[in-house]
Design a protein that fits this description.
The chain is an all-alpha fold and 105 residues long. The protein has two helices and no strands. It is rod-shaped and about 140 Å long. 96% of the residues lie in helices and 0% in strands.
Length: 105
Amino acid sequence: FDPNKVKNASSAAEGLCKWVLALEIYDRVTKVVAPKKEALREAEILVNKLMETLDEKRAELAAVEAKLAALKESLREKIEMKERLEVQVDQCEKKLVRAEKLIGG
């Protein structure tokens, strides 16, 4: 099936010969490419699922980080309150000692 040999008989036959050869090449290439396209499609599906999972986990992480920040702020406020109360306790103890000195003489 050689287009150059067929050309001597008929130019139309030469065109048909080239077309048949091109179809045969296309068929071979398609048989190689089709499984790769399927593998690509499956990989893209997997990537999309994994990206959805990643987005969910990122959202969960953001929520946990926000909660952690709120807890740290609450802890800071409680520590400040504890320090103020310790100062007040110390002042009250000093006042009590002075009051006992005044009363007891």
